[in-house]
Specification:
Radius of gyration: 21 Å
Mean pLDDT: 89
Structural class: alpha/beta
Strand order of the largest sheet: 6-7-8-3-9-10-12-11
Shape: globular
Strand content: 15-25%
Number of strands: 12
Largest sheet: 8 strands, mixed
Distance between the termini: 32 Å
Length: about 350
């Protein structure tokens, strides 16, 4: 099956008053239709920057290089007008802070309907917004489609709730509105950036179940961005672990969680408490700190914190090496063990 999204050698540099810094380094991955790829890493690792680079929503001081192919088109070379037709229709994004992402002075139904009106071609493909004369949908049609989307994401009394404002909804309901806006035009790829942040465990589980139902119903591919290993393990087919702007390990969920090979991935998993953890002992930690984007070492960014480091680790950025079928790690120590 051909890939829906192919990202190759993605790099993102930011120009600042203190100089240029590279926030994303040599990131490559591919996604098939209907697949969920979990992009996991701690805050500042480059997850959200990579996601925004796919949609070309980074600020002007960012310079993006590499290749991003979506559904056969090179996104980095498209004119802005064409890119706008893809955002919200071919690719949609759920942002992590619905209270700030939603307009506080617009009814939530109007905000979902606005997404429909912005992409009349996508709306027509759903066969829900064609009037009897075959003309493009009007505002009334878009409103009906918005209410339908709210019903799809299990908003209670969607006809009434569509007339509410964001502050009148609970945190879980606001997140469902964001999901409704993202799926109303039936995109092929959904980018979910920390969609459960700030929600309690019960609501978090409901949102994850909803995303899984929508993925299956509409055959969505989903890039699920999170720092929460437990959440990512529940929803993802494959996992990509990110550290200091680079992918350090990529594999199936089973491979990464049961057979981690990169020292950073192992450190992350060892630091997660379990029911079997000895409460009398302190949690495992990874010593040191993540380097800043303007103080990135020339080699492996994890080298200063790694117990396995070799002299070569500080000289050049290691390549992703296949350690098992479909399982890759960016570590020369692991590569040396294979040989």
């Amino acid at each position: 099956m051909p890939a829906l999204l192919e990202v190759e050698n993605l790099c993102v540099d930011f120009a600042t008053a203190q100089g240029s810094g590279r926030a994303v380094r040599d990131v490559s991955f591919a996604m098939a239709p209907g697949e969920v790829l979990g992009l996991v890493g701690e805050s500042g690792s480059g997850k959200s920057v990579s996601s925004l680079a796919i949609l070309r929503l980074l600020p002007r001081q960012a310079t993006v290089s590499g290749s991003i192919q979506f559904d056969g088109e090179d996104l980095l070379s498209l004119p802005e007008e064409k890119m706008r037709t893809i955002r919200g229709a071919g690719i949609s994004m759920i942002f992590q802070e619905p209270m700030t992402a939603l307009n506080p002075v617009m009814r939530v139904g109007d905000q979902v309907a606005e997404a429909v009106l912005a992409h009349p071609g996508a709306a027509t493909r759903t066969s829900s917004l064609i009037n009897r004369s075959g003309m493009r949908a009007d505002k009334a049609d878009a409103w009906r489609r918005a209410v339908e989307a709210l019903r799809t994401v299990a908003i209670p009394e969607p006809d009434r709730r569509a007339r509410d404002y964001a502050h009148q909804l609970s945190g879980g309901q606001r997140q469902r509105v964001m999901i409704a806006m993202a799926i109303v035009n039936r995109p092929k790829l959904l980018i979910a950036d920390e969609p459960t942040t700030g929600l309690d465990v019960t609501i978090q589980a409901q949102v994850l179940d909803l995303l899984n139902e929508l993925r299956q119903k509409f055959l969505l591919a989903m890039l699920f961005v999170s720092h929460d290993l437990a959440v990512v393990s529940q929803v993802s087919h494959r996992i990509a672990v990110m550290y200091a702007g680079s992918l350090v390990e990529v594999g199936s969920a089973t491979q990464v969680f049961r057979e981690p090979v990169h020292p950073y991935t192992r450190g992350l998993l060892n630091s997660v408490p379990t029911l079997r953890s000895d409460r009398s002992r302190a949690l495992n930690t990874i010593e040191g700190t993540v380097p800043g984007i303007r103080a990135m070492p020339p080699g492996c960014a994890f080298e200063p914190r790694c117990e396995w480091r070799l002299p070569s680790c500080s000289q050049a950025l290691p390549s992703l090496v296949e350690v098992a079928p479909g399982h890759f790690a960016r570590c020369p120590v692991v590569a040396a063990e294979l040989h």
